[in-house]
Design goal:
The protein is an alpha/beta fold. Helix 2 packs across helix 3, helix 2 packs parallel to helix 4 and helix 3 packs across helix 4. Adenosine-5'-triphosphate (ATP) binds next to strand 1, strand 2 and helix 1.
Amino acid sequence: MSSRIELSGVGQVFQVRAEGDKRLHEFVALDSLDLTVEAGEFLTIVGPSGCGKSTVLDLVSGLTRPTSGRVVVDGRVVTEPGLDRGVVFQQYTLLPWRTAQGNVEFALEATGMKRRDRARVAAEFLDLVGLSDFAQRYPHELSGGMKQRVAIARSLSYQPEVLLMDEPFGALDAQTRERLQEELVQIWRRTGTTIVFITHDIDEAVYLGQRVAVMSARPGRIREVVDIHLDREAPDDVDVRSTPEFARYRHEIWSLLRELNRRAPLEEVERVA
Ligand SMILES: Nc1ncnc2c1ncn2[C@@H]1O[C@H](COP(=O)(O)OP(=O)(O)OP(=O)(O)O)[C@@H](O)[C@H]1O
């Protein structure tokens, strides 16, 4: 199951207080942002710090509403969060008093699924992320990578049409991160879910995305969308990340980001924010 996502002319303005000034000022986080994600597509988003990546994800998830423009998922304007859209954040958001199995079941309770079915479906999705043997462990008994696997299983368990991921692997060590990236591609192939994935890591963006959207800051807009054509069916022993094509994509996106960072120095973005 998958859905098309369309953001058209999206603007997001926040009211912020500048340093030493009690009055509220308007801060334009996004301005006339247009982006389409096709049903079943895996799109990654990169951009300078503070350019509005999380804001875009919040709008698609329905956690916030845009100041202007429209966010449409599967032909319907997004007005609130819904079970058609799952979200995975960087920080592990598991309930500490529930086991891995219990955490996945908790998400299924919201769907009204019967208790016995919840147990079966939770077990299926823990299996999908390779955690069958850890189903009865509590979050504090799991590694960071395992906790993120539970979070992914939980978000996939109610079979959302769209999976929104905000730097989900940002807190993990490099090896665990690569392994989860590979697993996520497999899961995406199996489920066909539309995935929007935010990252600061250019390699991660190129490895995962069929397209990489590069955002500019102040105001946040889509600067360019780069199509990625990598051999995703390559055998296990082929290191896709070391191929010349991969290096070319990495360099293309690196150059775009470098140019954007030159234009909007980080200190300026953060001072105004
Ligand atoms: N609720 C809010 N109120 C005021 N300003 C906000 C709010 N949410 C976000 N902002 C500002 O909007 C801008 C975009 O924030 P956002 O978190 O979307 O950026 P980002 O690209 O995800 O950042 P990072 O890469 O550093 O995680 C930032 O300048 C931020 O300070």
